[in-house]
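Example record for the data management plan.
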Amino acid sequence: MNQLGYQAHQKTCTTILVGKRATIDGSTMIARNEDGGDEPNPQKFVVYPANTAGTVYESGANHVKIPLPENSFRYTAKPDADDSFGVWAGAGINSQNVAMTATETSTTNTRVLAADPLVDVGIGEADITTLVLPYIKSAREGVTRLGQLLKTYGTYESNGIAFSDQEEVWYFESIGGHHWAAIRIPDDAFVVAPNRFNIDYFDFNSEDTMSSADLEQFITDHHLNPDIDTTTPNLRHIFGSASDKDRVYNNPRAWYVHRLFAKDATNEQPEDQDLPFIVYPKKKLSVDDVKFALSSHYQGTAFDPYEHEQASLKYRPIGINRNQESHILQIRPNMPTDIAGVHWLGYGPNTFNAFVPFYVSVTTTPASFEKTTPTFDVSTSYWLTRVIAVIADKDFATYQDMQARFEQQIVADNVNLQQQTDQAIQAGQTVDLESVNQKMADNYMLAANTLLGKMTKLGTKKMQLRFSVDD
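Corresponding structural encoding:
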């Protein structure tokens, strides 16, 4: 398959999910870094309109054709700037205030793949958001629809997908070519999911789990459960991996976020293969907390590559040069429908960007976030942020405080604008949300350009190609 599609998208991601009673404001949050290869894969932010005419979807990745329902909902999405290899819509919120992020590339084992092989002409990351998000009215409906699609068409890869609405957060993992399991995240819990099969203990009789109809029998028929105690099946043991790569590539990411937020993670170690999936926080989490985690590189530990030169060889960080875009999809309680959903978005390596809280009840998005070009153009947010990251990464100690001040100020400015907008709409005033989004984007571009200018000025003084005498 094409190099851009199947390789650039499948390498890496990190997902964070937070239930409504674990957040500071009662919102649900599903978040993910969409990571790719070491080269840029430009992203754009768009709104797809509602559609009343059914059609046939054809994947740009493998040309599988799937008939679509007649009626669809409007939704935000984050596709590739270059759609030559498919849409790769990635994540968004629809007009029913249902959020979806797809996908977290996961792992499986040979026992599963032998029993239910992957399907070359099935659905995958390039297709899943487009096939599901426009047609669902709740997070549970998202699980059901995706499960039906997997049963009918199969998949060519292993993935994790998250859904949320105002009440619930669900995590869905594909299993082999046609099977799947999904679990509702407890309202008072959070989850961090790196690139491995993540769901552990699973009660097939619970109202808070769903799976393919024959999953229990599938486990039995193919002798997939390695555990001696099978009272409560551990799906990670049954379907997932516990490889040397997991020890250094996946597990440390979960360990670090647990270290930041978990009520009790004192006995956890970075390479543990059995880190818990469902975790309870020691405090209520905010958007800022989730953004920090998505930007993290093991700060405060011996594994931070910016503090310890050899640390970069040890564990794969969450904030990384492979971050192409990152989002926090927030569905807020006690808000009018038009402003309940917020699509927080940032481009490029998270350690050097800031997220913008875009309203989703709109028909267009700001040009600086939508009109991303496949080739370099610093007038767009994606490329401007990546330039900042490339410069700052080379001398992190010099630019760290400067970047932190930039992020704090631009987020404060945009959240202040968001709060004013919320209050006006709650008071019955008519507000043009597209204009508000435009103002937020303009604020970001101005602040980022100002930051780049300051970095250039400071960096010029530190260039090696200089001389102490002038005239």
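Summary line stored alongside the record: The longest helix spans residues 396-426.
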